Amino acid sequence: MNRAPLKRSRILHMALTGTSDPSAEAEASGEKPFLLRALQIALVVSLYWVTSISMVFLNKYLLDSPSLRLDTPIFVTFYQCLVTTLLCKGLSALATCCPGAVDFPSLRLDLRVARSVLPLSVVFIGMITFNNLCLKYVGVAFYNVGRSLTTVFNVLLSYLLLKQTTSFYALLTCGIIIGGFWLGVDQEGAEGTLSWLGTVFGVLASLCVSLNAIYTKKVLPAVDGSIWRLTFYNNANACILFLPLLLLLGELQALRDFAQLGSAHFWGMMTLGGLFGFAIGYVTGLQIKFTSPLTHNVSGTAKACAQTVLAVLYYEETKSFLWWTSNMMVLGGSSAYTWVRGREMKKTPEEPSPKEGEKSAMGV
């Protein structure tokens, strides 16, 4: 018996709350030998780690490489959105032409739906732009700490917008994250590597990630609960909204004067960055499907730790004990929050998830 794929709306809810799907886990545990399941999980987690870490290092190269010297962060983000839009459309056409070869929803640009998604698209643009601007101005090693306040904003916005209260223990873990963030900022300053601009962009990115999660749940019904349709409309809207920004900020002129504009290597790296941006959504859902949202969060925390260590080694940096302590506080606080919320959700009966018709094997 094949395991039924998780509904996308269900996955989103579980990923946001840190809860797992016991029934799905029970089915998975009884249908395959342990070694086969362990191998599958190891491969999926490895794929997530490689994709996520590679994307960060590649974006750092595109945004702030001394050899590239390209100062067009908005254009880099625009191009990645364009690649994602074209990939979604291409896979949709392939699924239509070759049913069964690829399971992907049909995509047709509906202006009414595009308008419904537009408020979320504005938040989405802020999220990906501030993420890239943060990465441009801070080192990869500090990138995780610079964007570590997402959990704190989740708690704050849940109270302000949704009137949801948070337990004392969850607030305590948020306090640990805030402490780690401030200690990290202090240590970056002490080492002379602090970029206040990059740090501000990191805080704004964290805020937009939280807003994106909240508005995604509100907008999903407009795209029939399909994460892939939402991805398509978000990126299509972003491509249009980025155009006036490229003109206003003078990035088209900077691009015209760019020495490597005709380089196949440059456009290959740009396209690869777009492919990674598309792939991270797929492998994230794949990891949730083969493990659980809680395990996915733990894997993400461990990946962030490995990414920090790799960055320190690759860029040959020397960090103080307190700098490493700030990272451990952020990672430990995030893991503790996930664990606390997971325990709380198990004690609270969950509301039935919205009905969704789409089941995609690319699906996550």
UniProtKB/TrEMBL annotation:
It is a multi-pass membrane protein. InterPro entries: EmrE-like, Sugar_P_trans_dom, TPT_transporter. Keywords: Membrane, Transmembrane, Transmembrane helix. Residues 40-334 form the Sugar phosphate transporter domain. It is found in: Membrane. The chain crosses the membrane at residues 38-62, 74-96, 116-134, 141-162, 168-185, 194-215, 235-252, 264-284. It comes from the Eukaryota. Pfam families: TPT (PF03151). Residues 345-364 are annotated as: Disordered. Putative transporter. Belongs to the TPT transporter family. SLC35E subfamily. PANTHER family: SOLUTE CARRIER FAMILY 35. This is Sugar phosphate transporter domain-containing protein. It comes from Saguinus oedipus (Cotton-top tamarin). The lineage of its organism: Eukaryota, Metazoa, Chordata, Craniata, Vertebrata.
